[in-house]
């Protein structure tokens, strides 16, 4: 194999990264993208594709980039994904498509995600002709990645798609959860506008379960419903002191910053400006919260009960967090949040942890080390330990079967226990990645179309 080296992504100057919300990864130049694309071996069996939940034809789009044909590369992407500019930025390619790249066997994989981003960012915004309507209406609940992917697949085949969003802004977690320095909102808006131009109808400020029920949607003429309402309710540890002033869920903290623009000087949304903040958790959300708090002027420590190897966050995000000055307190777990007479946070009491044998999930179990308690002084705590589900979408409707923890039970096609009602994304799996949610949305769309087609043939 040729020894062409993987191109290094240019980054924003470190000092700017610590104080502004400008995007950190600056993207490849034309020269870099062409050089990186030429590293692709165009393998006969396309192993990289088996790691892509939305089945992007990876060697094909990269081949066009190697020849300098950005628009054709973008066209290939658009056949398979509704959000190429988003996925190129936030998908964990290192554990998906790039994991199976043949070059990764003896070196570094082709930078598939960075090339996807380049094609999406630099292609001329191609005009898409609307497909003639087939007259079949489908409703989607939630405008996050699962809902957008489902809409993008259905609209290609002439379905009349209406996406209902509870908030005033579209995009779900892409808008309220992921910070500007990782995913600029102009990128999300552009992807959604492309879907709108192709014929998707978006309706904001509609809380399905209150404004309208799923049963009512079916009665109004929608042939099928896809539930992609996500898992937006925060989890807490249920330890003493969690009700003190200065304790936040990552959901609230990031929503204030990302959706309500609380970091801007003229924002009317208040934002707690701590001097020393602790973020509990080790996933991408924890990294986002920590790096956001840093940009608000705080000294930040991430507390995680396992080691660096077990951190579930993307390696790139952990690396960026370290570069920006965030401290990691590993193999440690909070047992109490400390406060003063004014009920304000003054610190966190923790206990040291040790790794044991792998648990049912395959990750190493953790146990407390006796007599290992210690304290860290702080004035704010952000809990980033996952999310739980809301049952609001099914309020006033015949419910569906669920897992014990609340997730909707679906079959391999995303079909729930109720005919015509499908579900996918975090509402099924719990908190997961953008691309896995998109894969679920795309798969459900295909199943919905097949089912509707079969029903129409029998009528």
Architecture overview:
The protein is of the alpha/beta class and 459 residues long. It has helices spanning 14-17, 30-37, 58-66, 70-80, 84-90, 112-122, 145-155, 173-176, 185-197, 214-219, 250-258, 284-295, 315-323, 426-429, 434-458; strands spanning 137-141, 160-164, 201-203, 224-227, 233-234, 247-249, 276-280, 299-304, 327-330, 332-339, 345-358, 364-377, 380-383, 387-388, 421-423. The chain contains 15 helices and 15 strands. The strands form four sheets. It has a five-stranded parallel β-sheet with strand order 3-2-1-4-15. Strands 6-13-7-8-9 form a five-stranded parallel β-sheet. Helix 12 (284-295) links the parallel strand 7 and strand 8 (299-304). The longest helix has 25 residues, at 434-458. The mean pLDDT is 92.
Order of helix and strand elements from N to C terminus: HHHHHHEHEHHEHEEEHEHEHEEEEEEEHH
Structural class: alpha/beta
Query: Strand count, sense and closure of the main sheet?
Result: 5 strands, parallel
Overall mean confidence score, pLDDT? 92
How many separate domains? 3
In the CATH hierarchy, what is the class of the largest domain? Alpha Beta
Q: Strand fraction band?
A: 15-25%
Low-confidence stretches are none
User: Which overall shape is indicated by the principal axes computed on the Cα atoms?
Assistant: globular
Helix content: 25-40%
From the 3D structure, determine the CATH topology of the largest domain: FAD/NAD(P)-binding domain
